[in-house]
Design goal:
Elements lengths: L10 E2 L2 E2 H32 L11 H12 L4 H50 L6 H24 L7 H33 L1 H21 L22 H25 L4 H9 L3 E2 L2 E2 L8 H22 L6 H25 L6 H28 L5 H8 L1 H13 L8 H21 L1 H7 L29
Antiparallel strand pairs: 1-2, 3-4
Helix pairs in contact: 1-3, 1-4, 1-5, 1-6, 3-4, 3-6, 3-13, 5-6, 5-9, 7-10, 7-11, 7-13, 7-14, 9-11, 10-11, 10-14, 11-12
Length: about 475
């Protein structure tokens, strides 16, 4: 019998080789996505939507008229904010449709490849004023086809009973997301500052193509598409207790919209505020504004082991917050981050660079408190027959938040910056108050006691076990 090590199946950190190709594909995709979004609102407000450029965008006059029929007349900055909100909101909505298309018609493999091609084309279309709206459409549809389907393929590498293997796989997969989210704004932002906006968009497109080639290179390792024949078996209707749980989960998801508004404004008007009000000269180097979008995903990477240690210590003392408690803490941290900007606006005309750095760091930790906790709660409490549907529906809270964020950006020029950030602190505080005030009835409706244990025979999955999976919203 041969003992040659070449006869042994290759693995990726002890996991199937397919995970390597899926993880690197996702890293390139997130690199391109976050790199592009880090410069998008700045590009629109400082160049594309100004006279001399905006007239060249195909179909933009009709598009603007449609937006203003809904939201009222908008300045250039308000319009840029609204477009950014629509774009990021729809990016969280279309994966629901992309999964449905893959399940019903084209399969996950083809969906991912089509999504990658469309996103590459979208990034490259950003190089031309005329194709701006087409570029956004390609990116939104492409992300919808790729995002959910590639995550589903990670889960399909493991048996339903292999919960431990799946958790480790998603932990590795989430690292690739965060690495892409950190590096993308750094590279695209630097290129945009040195060589112009289109250089940043071009890099995003090129790296999305690398993601496509990576996926194709691993094609033989990937799980085969499941047969798409026949309707799903009929499920038993939900009973009253299950409907109560569904309603409670919907309320919890709605509560997080408030802090998501306070959080995700950091990718929209916060970049405008930093560009106008922060002293970006650091030791003779002008810090690219887009770099600040790398800070909160970096906090997600560094913060996970720190929060694990904190929660283990609290659990040993019977003082670890329950799910609603953690969501509430996330809201109050978001309040604190926005109040930091309020203080900076009131105390100085030019804000030191350390302030937005701390702002994004606090937001990164706040995100870890509320978003992975929400995903873990839905995964644990949702009725089994609709668990996947509810897990997808949770992302609609981010869709709603980003749509509102774009609309709120329209008020920036009619307020002082301090008032604008105070408004966001107040909105996030609403989420904190609701999470605290509704904690007991929601825990009761979810059939969870105040120690975090379900009031039935099934043991819970600890929220901390899934934080690595949800270290970003992506």
């Amino acid at each position: 019998m041969s003992t040659n090590t070449n006869d042994r199946p290759r693995t990726f950190f002890g996991q199937p080789m397919a995970l390597a190709y899926l993880s690197f594909t996702e890293a390139w995709e997130r690199f391109s996505y976050y790199g592009m979004t880090a410069i998008l609102v700045l590009y629109m407000s400082q160049m594309l939507l100004l006279p001399g450029h905006v007239e060249g965008i195909v179909g933009f006059a009709s598009f603007r008229a449609t937006l203003e029929s809904v939201f009222g007349p908008m300045t250039t900055l308000a319009l840029a904010s609204q477009i950014m909100g629509l774009y990021t909101g729809l990016v969280y909505f279309t994966p629901v449709l992309g999964g449905w298309v893959a399940d019903r018609w084209i399969g996950r493999r083809l969906a991912v490849m089509l999504g990658a091609v469309m996103m590459s084309a979208g990034h490259l279309a950003m190089a031309f004023d005329a194709s701006f709206l087409l570029a956004l459409l390609l990116l939104i549809v492409g992300c919808g086809l790729l995002k959910g389907n590639i995550s589903t393929q990670v889960g399909e590498l493991y048996a339903e009973t292999d919960g431990e293997g799946r958790t480790r796989a998603f932990a590795i997969f989430s690292i690739s997301i965060n690495v892409g989210a950190v590096v993308g704004p750094l590279m695209c932002g630097l290129l945009a500052q040195l060589y112009g906006w289109h250089a940043g968009f071009g890099l995003a497109g090129a790296l999305m193509l690398i993601g496509l080639f990576t996926y194709i290179a691993g094609f033989r390792h990937l799980p085969r598409d499941r047969p798409r024949a026949g309707p799903a078996p009929k499920q038993a209707p939900l009973d009253s207790r299950q409907w109560r749980i569904v309603g409670a989960l919907a309320v919890v998801s709605a509560i997080t919209v408030f802090q998501s508004i306070g959080y995700y404004q950091n990718t929209n008007l916060a970049l405008i505020w930093i560009n106008r009000n922060v002293d970006l000269n650091l030791l003779g180097f002008h810090v690219p504004v887009a770099w600040f979008n790398s800070i909160d995903p970096l906090a997600s990477i560094v913060g996970v082991p720190l929060l694990f240690a904190l929660w283990r210590r609290q659990a040993a003392r019977d003082s670890e917050p329950d799910d609603l408690g953690k969501i509430s803490i996330g809201a109050w941290l978001t309040v604190g981050a926005n109040l930091l900007l309020v203080a900076a606006c009131m105390l100085a005309t030019r804000t030191p660079v350390i302030v937005p750095l701390l702002y994004d760091l606090i937001l990164g930790i706040a995100f870890l408190y509320y978003w992975p906790t929400l995903l873990a709660l839905v995964s644990r409490a949702a009725p089994a027959s609709i668990k996947a549907t509810l897990m997808g529906a949770v992302f609609l809270s981010l869709f709603a938040a980003n749509m509102i964020i774009g609309w709120l950006g329209g008020f920036y020029e009619s307020m002082t910056p301090a008032t604008f950030w105070a408004m966001h602190a107040a909105i996030a505080a609403v989420g904190g108050v609701l999470a605290m005030g509704l904690r007991r009835p929601l825990l009761w409706a979810l059939a969870i006691d105040e120690a975090g244990m379900p009031r039935d025979a099934n043991p819970p999955v600890p929220a901390t076990a899934s934080i690595a999976v949800g270290a970003t919203a992506d």
